[in-house]
Amino acid sequence: MAAEQSTDAALTTVDLSSASVRELNQRLHDLEQPARVRVLEPGGRHSIAAGLRAAHDVEIAGHVGYYCAGMNQLATVRIRGNCGVGVAENMMSGTVIVEGSASQSAGATARGGLLVIDGDASARCAISLKGADVVVRGSVGHMSAFMAQRGALVVCGDAGEALGDSLYEAHLYVRGEVRSLGADCIEKELRDEHLAELSGLLERAGLAELEASGFRRYGSERRLYNFHPDNLGSY
Amino acid sequence: MCGIAGLFTKTPGGQAALGAHVARMLEQLAARGPDSAGVAFYREPAPAGSCKLSLFAEEGCDWDALGTELDEVFESASPPRVHASHAVFVVEADAEQAQGWLGEAHPELRVMSAGTTIEVYKEAGSPHEFVRRFGLEEIAGSHALGHTRMATESRVTTEHSHPFSTGEDLCLVHNGSLSNHNRLRRRLRSEGIRFQTDNDTEVAAGYLTWRLREGASLEQALEGCLEDLDGFYTFAVGTVDGFAVLRDPIACKPAVMAETEDWVAMASEYRAIAVLPGAAGARTWEPEPGRVYSWGATAVS
Questions:
Q1: Are A192 and A217 in contact (CB under 8 A)?
Q2: Please, which pLDDT band fits residue A10 given cuts at 50, 70 and 90?
Q3: Which whole-number Å values give the CA distances from A199 to A155, A211, B32, B148, B187, in the listed order?
Q4: Which helix (H) or strand (E) holds B203?
Q5: Of A43, A85, A103, which has the smallest distance from its Cβ to B271's Cβ?
Q6: CA–CA separation, B26 vs B7, rounded Å?
């Protein structure tokens, strides 16, 4: 495999113009001790750095395809570009940072850890979120946080149509405009505990300069949780 | 699934390499559509008074003899340019007239495209094989669309492959599936639109043809899709001087676009754009759902 040890002994470089994604991922899975790995020439390939289980520090020098850093545990994955569908899908823990924009379903079903997107995220960001925190510096597309159960979605720009449709207990914070709220999603009071949670998330995402009080909070009205004949039209 | 790609070049160098670039894009999308592949190239406009026809012969054809026959009937026709099972002719006639004659004299042949500039090649089988058999690497032109197919709605045959020609110099490639195509096909047939297959995408192509015939602009025709088509789609539509892109309002199917000083590209996945020269520095974005994007001399937005 085309992996070279650089002068910095702790840093391994893998060039995907010569190594396959499978070779890269196998190597990352086999490393039991936390390692620093730099991935070159990602070329939009899918599943880069998926399934990591140790506190590796992975930097990807360019745009990636689908499911980058999916199922991540413990590792920090930094993408110096845009990413395709499903970045950090089902993340369990760790941190994934996208320096560009993310396509659809960013952070889908993620259970833990932090996903930070410096650009925009398109439709269905944080769909079915199950406990992770997602911070988007730009805007998110339609149906974001659809059926989100736990965790938080922070949007520093605008949110598209049907934000938080069929929402459970995830916390949604939006700084800009919300085009429309989905079924059972309402604006809620931004209380002290929410300001504290939001300030903490902004700080962890490197956005401490933003005032938490400049956001609005949205959450579930809890009318669709259980079947109720009066809600038939909304199911 | 299916994969689609579009590339519009802005430089002479890019025009010379168009086929080579499109070939690489299609190969990146081969996994999304292993059943069939197809391309539409816009290149070498026919002289005024002439039309260009792309013909497909399932059982093979003596193309030279057909060229001689066309030359006799229409007094002037180019020798055939053969690409695998297809051949391109330039005939001194209007496209409707030439197609009418072919339908009578050679019902065994299928007209894949007609117009002044468009050429369509498509075939059932592996996209990798398609790229090689049709010699895409050698084809120059101003812009092109490509498609790799994973069939969901109708059979895997060359006739069911994309692009579908939607009228002279117009074609459509589609990623997705339409659910109201049977009813819409009946309605369009009553308006005089002709269909060659039971394919859902051909109905979308026929819809665009009908709207344009009724006086709609390309933008209006595409916006009409948002109202009249039920289903999932990312469309790329080729015109004589550019191409347009439209995604369904819920963005069910993927699309990414990129632009440099030298080209504008769209594809189902970024990896098909990553193979283009200068892609790393390109302005890259995801087209919004329900919005028409277009490039070329008659850009609509």
A1: no
A2: confident
A3: 13, 7, 43, 47, 58
A4: helix B200-213
A5: A43
A6: 11
